[in-house]
Write a structure and sequence with these properties.
By secondary structure, the chain is an alpha/beta fold. It has one domain: P-loop containing nucleotide triphosphate hydrolases (Rossmann fold). It has an 8-stranded mixed β-sheet with strand order 1-2-8-7-3-6-5-4. The protein is globular and about 40 Å long. It starts with 5 loop residues before the first strand and ends with a helix.
């Protein structure tokens, strides 16, 4: 991993124990580079849920994931007012943003079609995703770090497929 990235591991002690990997980036470019590296470990059918405040860097991470899937990163934008954007690449990417949906999520069948597709599904504001507990998802919580562009990412596996991704990520550190 590039200089400046810290990858550590631990276990969440909440209701469910799952592997957690912590990553720190120092700028937007590093956040995007990490997303690109993460994409190399994902495959068709993978689900990445993003959690964090406005301006935390969720879309920067999506740009990196999309670039790692062979998508032209200039096409990637936050689909807040569209709810979803689909990008063609070596592996297609469905970019879903649930920010403005709050208590009234989009049609569950439509969402299921997006996340159960043949590409990688990345869901911003994943905490608003209906039936998220049934999904095998890699959940990434992004928080601002101590410096202006620093970001702290906590990646948690919710399912075996996501756990396999985290194990490979730890092995590559």
């Amino acid at each position: 991993m590039p200089h400046g990235w810290f990858v550590g591991a631990g276990f969440d002690r909440g209701c469910y124990a799952f592997l957690v990997v912590n990553v720190q980036t120092r700028c937007v470019d590093e956040t995007e580079q990490f997303g690109e590296r993460l994409a190399s470990l994902l495959g068709p059918g993978a689900i990445v849920g993003l959690v964090g405040p406005l301006g935390a860097g969720k879309t920067a991470l999506v740009r990196g994931i999309a670039r790692g899937c062979g998508v032209d990163e200039r096409e990637v934008h936050s689909p807040t007012f569209l709810t979803a954007a689909e990008y063609e690449g070596r592996v297609p990417v469905a970019h879903i943003d649930l920010y403005r949906h709050g208590d009234s999520p989009p049609d569950p069948e439509w969402l299921a079609e997006l996340v159960d597709g043949d590409g990688v599904a990345v869901v911003e504001w994943f905490e608003q995703m209906p039936d998220r507990s049934r999904l095998d998802a890699l959940v990434v919580e992004i928080r601002p770090g101590p410096g202006e562009e620093d970001r702290e990412l906590a990646l948690a596996a919710h399912g075996q497929r996501a756990a396999d991704v985290l194990a490979r990520l730890r092995g590559a550190a």
